[in-house]
Design a protein that fits this description.
Helix content is 50%, strand content 6%. It contains six helices and two strands; from the N terminus they run H-H-H-E-E-H-H-H. It has a two-stranded antiparallel sheet.
Length: 139
């Protein structure tokens, strides 16, 4: 399974909205600027996310988008399925020999498990490895 830019940028939008959850709307322009992405492309991606009920638009001078639900209730799998379609490593499993079919099913299930158990909140709260909230000591 390969996630295209639609899925990757869609997750970027959702993570930014999750980081700012409860603080008011965020414009696509600010997300595009922060991540050096095309605002026009993000506008194309937000429509299916809005139609699926994951985001709400807020009109006006200080408008933009907000999450329609808490970040802990939206999974990466929700977003990927909305923008990419069904999660499957290969097409046409019925034509595969039993050993390969079993392998593809196990891979599909593992990918689904990761995506469906990773929330947008998890992604928004992620820190780089090595970063820590430990005490800073100065000598």
């Amino acid at each position: 399974m390969k996630v295209s830019t639609k899925g990757r940028y869609g997750l970027t939008i959702m993570i930014e909205l999750a980081k700012n959850y409860g603080e008011g709307p965020i414009s696509l322009k600010s997300i595009a600027t922060t991540h050096n992405l095309s605002e026009h492309y993000l506008e194309q991606l937000i429509a299916p996310l809005r139609n699926s009920g994951f985001v709400k638009s807020v009109r006006g001078a200080y408008g933009g988008y907000v999450l329609a639900d808490e970040p802990s209730n939206i999974t990466a799998g929700d977003i990927i399925r909305t923008l990419e379609g069904p999660i499957s490593p290969v097409e046409g499993l019925e034509n595969e020999a039993p050993p390969q079919k079993e392998l593809w099913i196990r891979i599909r299930d593992a990918v689904r498990n990761v995506l469906d158990h990773t929330t947008i909140e998890d992604l928004a709260n992620h820190t780089e490895e090595g970063e820590s909230d430990a005490y800073m000591f100065y000598i």
